[in-house]
Write a structure and sequence with these properties.
Layout lengths: L1 H22 L4 E5 L6 H9 L6 E6 L3 H9 L6 E6 L4 H5 L4 E4 L15 H18 L4 E4 L4 H15 L7 E3 L2 H15 L10 E3 L6 E3 L13 H12 L1 H9 L7 H18 L5 E8 L7 E9 L2 E5 L7 H27 L1
Parallel strand pairs: 1-2, 1-4, 2-3, 4-5, 5-6
Antiparallel strand pairs: 7-8, 9-10, 10-11
Bound molecules: 1,4-dihydronicotinamide adenine dinucleotide.
The site of 1,4-dihydronicotinamide adenine dinucleotide has 33 residues, from helix 5.
Length: 340
């Protein structure tokens, strides 16, 4: 009987070892712009993620310090810092997931589109390197204007012959994070259980939260409440830009949102079922070539771009009025990538 017990316990131990190894394959994550306002807290949060085995921190300056600092945290990921163009290739080599918060943020009075000139060039350069060094990686684009930088990335990858629409994501998770927080506050429900899809794009009126699909549902909200909640979600970024009064835009909440989305991508890659997040991706949900909606994540990235579901009259109206601006931002990105 002793030996039977022993062999059963050995068997259990083996199974446990097997399942923990199987649940956590090696995954390399690269953050480009890792020394910035978003990059640093995002590096911290990704270092805390047990799914990450290797964390590559790249920036044009200051990454050695950030990497040395973060590397002392006693979690799984091995951290390396890379600085300057010469080290970009090595930073990217073998990456499963590349997260891009590189670029300039907004100052008061600026729209996301005002960032276009500088950030478009930065994104183009970084995506050219991704195509060369880790063409199979999932790319999470945080750099604004997301409505244009995602189409730029797609064009760069097409030119390089590496484009896979399943692997390119505009990160709109902060809009979802804000919609959840603001909705929970107004509807007076515990925020932890709240879900709100946010569709469209990632700037001003192109951000369309679908509060009619929010869970738990609330009948305590009037039409005026919903209009105000929608506007606050759309202007959430500006609220932070103004409060920071010239010292940049959302960084901490964005790092959180980026870490949530990055984690979802890794879970998808690892084969965890039913991972659904909103993201700005190549889409046929509307007539626009890129559109944010709920996306099911899987082993090769986007497994399914989900439809919009039923919209309220207010949301239908919002959808129609965002299409013009969103299309012109998409076209602006495509044109930049093709002409430069
Ligand atoms: P930041 O200025 O604090 O940091 C940007 C970092 O990018 C700097 O460390 C800079 O050295 C680096 N950088 C510049 N050129 C680079 C290059 N060629 N390669 C690698 N790194 C480079 O700015 P912050 O606040 O971190 O914002 C970064 C971007 O994220 C901005 O474009 C901002 O608009 C965007 N953002 C996006 C949000 C979203 O919801 N998707 C929310 C908030 C900001």
């Amino acid at each position: 009987r002793m030996s039977l017990l022993r062999s059963a316990s050995q068997h259990l131990r083996r199974r446990r070892d097997y399942s923990s190894a199987a649940a956590s394959p090696e995954r390399k994550v690269a953050i480009l712009g890792a020394a910035g306002g978003i990059g640093q807290p995002l590096a911290l949060l990704m270092k805390l993620n047990p799914l990450v085995s290797s964390l590559s921190l790249y920036d044009i300056a200051a990454t050695p310090g950030v990497a040395a600092d973060v590397s002392h945290i006693n979690t799984r990921a091995l951290v390396k810092g890379f600085v300057g163009d010469d080290q970009l290739g090595e930073a990217l080599e073998g990456a499963d997931l590349v997260i891009i918060p590189a670029g300039v943020p907004r100052k008061p009075g600026m729209t996301r589109d005002d960032l276009f000139k500088i950030n478009a060039g930065i994104v183009k350069g970084l995506c050219t390197a991704i195509a060369r060094h880790c063409p199979n990686a999932l790319v999470n684009m945080i750099s604004n204007p997301v409505n244009s930088t995602v189409p730029i990335a797609a064009e760069v990858f097409k030119k390089a012959g590496t484009y896979d629409e399943k692997k390119l994501f505009g990160v709109t998770t902060l809009d979802v994070v804000r919609a959840k927080t603001f909705y929970a506050g107004k509807a007076n429900v515990p925020v932890t259980g709240v879900n709100v899809p946010v569709v469209g794009g990632h700037a001003g009126i192109t951000i369309l939260p679908l509060f009619s699909q929010a869970t738990p549902a609330s009948n305590a909200l009037s039409h005026e409440d919903l209009v105000a909640l929608t506007k606050r979600t759309q202007d959430g970024g500006t609220e932070v830009v103004e409060a920071k009064a010239g010292k940049g835009s959302a960084t901490l909440s964005m790092a959180y949102a980026g870490a949530v989305f990055g984690d979802a991508c890794l879970k998808g890659l690892n084969g965890v079922p039913d991972i659904v997040e909103c993201s700005f991706v190549q889409s046929t949900v509307t007539e626009l070539p890129f559109f944010a909606s709920k996306v099911r994540l899987g082993k090769s990235g986007v497994e399914e771009v989900m439809g919009l579901g039923e919209l309220s009259a207010l949301e239908k109206e919002g959808l129609e009025s965002l299409k013009g601006e969103l299309l012109s931002s998409i076209e602006k990105g495509v044109k930049f990538a093709q002409e430069s």
